[in-house]
Amino acid sequence: MSTKSTTLRDSLTITDERLRTIALYVGLYGTAALFLIPYWYMFATSFMTRDLVYAEVPHLIPWDVTLYWYEYLLANSLIGMWTVNTLILAGVTTLVVLVIDAMIAYSLTRLEWPGRRVIFAVIVASFMVPGIVNLVPVYIIVSELGLVNSMWGVVLPSAANPLGVFMLVQFFKDIPEELEEAARLDGFSRLRVFTHIVLPLMRSALAALGLFIFIWTWNAFVWPLLILQSETMYTLPIGLVTLQDNLGVTEPGVIMTSAVIASIPLLIVFLVMQKHLVRAVEMQGTTK
Prior knowledge:
The protein contains 14 helices and no strands.
């Protein structure tokens, strides 16, 4: 009798665990659906006809699909050029930041030089300084260098990212120094150790940092607005803000379509880099 009671109790426990698991997944998927509904509505509206856009009852499915809004934007604005400008700016900025931050972080963790601890403390302390405080002095420097209304005027002030240095320093500390010492014994120079040994081990961390920098640069507005004065040099955030003034546009279809165009590259980059981001979090979470 006791054996039957134990078996019944175990089966009830397993059933309860399954119910809790099912309830957890239902809650997670339900929450995800709530967050995705606005994005789906934005995407669906970009393919709706004017009648569906202005219908009294909102539609979540574009029964009558049209590309009118995309054709209108491409024909009456420079959104294609703005997209290319933003891709180039974000790509170059990401590459420059990764190279410079990786070298700075490696120097702070592996090389012995006077004042490196003070420099690292200054880098960490710079997190507490609002970026807007530096706008005027940095703008004066960029102006004196003749970089106003140029992509390099936007890229160079962001070339060394303190958060990126701090993040990479933590990852560099987790790489065993014995690997580098073995490579040095085999005749590798310090630069070759850095490029052939250390950087390959840092792929996930660099990819995660690159993703953050790319998204931050893609969405940047204030600094590019100060530097880029020509409409042909605008990035997407600036161009979309000026779109209504230039075209007198208040059409929901145009607004939603421009938002879709601005979101798709970010979504693609995130999906491609997602596994590296997860790997970087796992690496940092398992370190002692």
